[in-house]
Amino acid sequence: MTNRRDFLRTFAVGAAGLSLTGLPLEALAKRRVTKITILHTNDVHSHIDPFPANDPKYPGLGGVAQRAAIINDIRNKERNVLLLDAGDIFQGTPYFNLFGGEVELKLMSQLGYDAGTIGNHDFDNGVDGLSSQLKHANFPLIICNYDFKGTSMEGKTIPYKIFEKEDVRIGVFGLGIELEGLVDKKMYGETKYLDPLEKAAETAHHLKFNEKCDLIICLSHLGYRYPNKKVSDDVLAKKSLNIDLIIGGHTHTFIDKPFVYKNRDNKDVLVAQVGWARIKLGRIDFFVDKKMRKLTADSTTLKVLNYARAI
Amino acid sequence: MSFRNILLAAAIVFTSCKQNAHLVKTETTTYPLNKPGFTEVDSSILNSYSSYKHTIDSIMDRVIIVSEMSMQKKTPEGLLGNFTSDAALKQVENDFHAKDFSKIDFCFLNNGGLRAALPKGDITIGNIYSLMPFENEMVLLTLNGATTLKLINFIAAKGGMPVSGLTMRVHESTVTEAKIQGMPFDSTKSYVVATSDYLANGGDNLSF
Asked: Hey, are the CB atoms on B42 and A69 less than 8 Å from each other?
């Protein structure tokens, strides 16, 4: 119960800055609200050790053991944590060249990743190079717009997964980038790329209305944004329905505070991405109320005080 | 140790009423990992990959050369791109010389293939792996004048790629002058070009 009290305190701090229409603050604090903590990474690219101290750009930053310490700390404080990755697990250090992805997947499993999606570089040892490494992962690879029929990856991915945390149903689905022109054909072989906007619409609709998910998260390796019309998280967010959060990757974009987009229904969609190489870890806390029918309020920005302590 | 400057969070209150559940608000946080001086680690993680690390370090820590300056990639050209394309061209020339291959005119690579900067000081085998982790092979292509021109225009449209043996003058993405091995580009000639198999097979949207 300490956990709950902590949360209520945090929430009261947050709510102080809000202007709420027709809802006294005390009533809000007493409602049954579940906190869901999403931790995310992308484009880790086989970075297991921190960058060397003489690296010109990121001296001493990153490191899987350092990340684990932070994740453990958050897990000790929060009840409902999901740890997700948006692809390009492979390629970037000799760990991949020498061991083919085994170390990356074993360590992600040990860190307790709940799911990941597939990036273009995860094909760098071919479809077979990916499928043969999956025995080292205890978490699913989620992707709904790659059709692996006829390849060694057939049946080894799932289009979406539903996580239940207390009374909240969280639907997670994955999207991959177009492989043609980006990955050598001999590497991705017979993998078929399906329209990510169509598959996203279909999957998110299914999660919302058939699976009754309260929170819908897209793991995307489409990339944040492009100067041309190429499909990206920017395009997806604006054209989407039913998605609450897009955890992005591919463009190695450092987004310090997720962008808030409006979807086709004028509802908020968060777009997040935390650069690459384990330099940063993203965190998003959702507060979900199962009972509330209507709430109107302004958005605000606040400092979260209680995380600054022990991490 | 504590992060002091981490946490700005956004609180967003969602305003709809159709669904049975409601997102009341969200808070977002980004954790920078181990800034210099921050050293909290999970030793069980370190233990579980120590045998792999030992194997890697024994190979990768060997210093192969000392560099007087750090090298990073830039467009239209950068030290790192110049260095790698010069080195690739030189190596391909050495390899093919023995096989009595005709002269290679120029080499081009892609900036996306250069995955890390090179530091000033000791350069280890590990640095080189980080710079070019991909298991690519160099290939030689004989291109006719028209295709070579397409390639030159492609490089200009990209805002520059790492090249060796090719100089270009570009004005607002249009090539106004191109020299290959110091000679003006000649559309009636064919050229022998060295590049990675990734690019030769159409990578980086090189689809012609």
From this structure: yes
Measured between beta carbons, the chain A residues lying within 8 angstroms of B40 are: 66, 69-70
In a domain, B5, yes or no: no
Domain harbouring B124, CATH code: 3.90.780.10
Q: Report if residue B187 sits inside a domain.
A: yes
Where in the sequence is the domain holding B99, given as residue range(s)?
63-205
Residue type for position A265? D
The whole-angstrom separation of Cα A27 and Cα A39 is 29
Mean pLDDT of the region A14-39: 58
Are B45 and A110 a contacting pair, CB within 8 Å?
yes
CB atoms closer than 10 angstroms to residue B174: 10
The overall pTM is greater than 0.80? no
In this prediction, the residues of chain B whose per-residue pLDDT falls under 70 are 1-21, 32-39, 97-102
Q: Tell me the ipTM for this assembly.
A: 0.79
CB contact under 8 A, B40 and A69: yes
Asked, for residue B179, whether it belongs to a domain, the answer is yes
Q: Kindly give the pairing relationship between strand B183-184 and strand B191-196.
A: unpaired
User: CA A298 → CA A21, A138, A223, B24, B85, distances in Å?
Assistant: 9, 41, 30, 11, 54
Beta-carbon neighbour count of residue B38 at 10 Å? 18
Q: With an 8 Å Cβ cutoff, are B49 and A183 in contact?
A: no
Give the span between the Cα atoms of B201 and A123, in whole angstroms: 15
Distance from CA of A2 to the nearest CA of B (A): 20
Q: Calculate Rg over the CA atoms of chain B.
A: 24
Q: Taking CB atoms and an 8 Å limit, are A45 and B115 in contact across chains?
A: yes
Per-residue pLDDT of B188-208, as tens digits, reads 999 999 999 889 888 888 877
- Looking at the domain assignment, is residue B110 inside a domain? yes
